[in-house]
Design a protein that fits this description.
The protein has 75 residues and is an alpha+beta fold. It is built from 3 helices and 3 strands, in the order H-E-E-H-H-E. The protein has one domain: GMP Synthetase, Chain A, domain 3.
């Protein structure tokens, strides 16, 4: 999941070197934190959060295959 979020985020931003994705696992869910440069934050979130919602939908679909719950946080 971490790699999936990283590939999507690097394709969206102007400075892909500053994209950092961390993964925290717990019993109930996996929390993926996406850190991008402040100038690229709008590109990752999108108008009215549409791109962020799309990223979460793709990750959720991939997580369903593995029967896991994944939460994507954009920090």
């Amino acid at each position: 999941m971490k790699e999936l979020v990283e590939v999507i985020a690097k394709a969206l931003v102007d400075s892909p070197d500053e994209v950092v994705v961390t993964e925290k696992r717990s019993e109930k869910a996996i929390v993926i934190e996406l850190h991008v440069a402040s100038s690229d934050m709008g590109k990752v979130i999108g108008k009215q959060g549409r791109i962020a919602k799309a990223i979460r939908s793709v990750v959720k679909a991939a997580a369903t295959k593995e029967d896991r719950k994944v939460i994507v946080d954009i920090v």
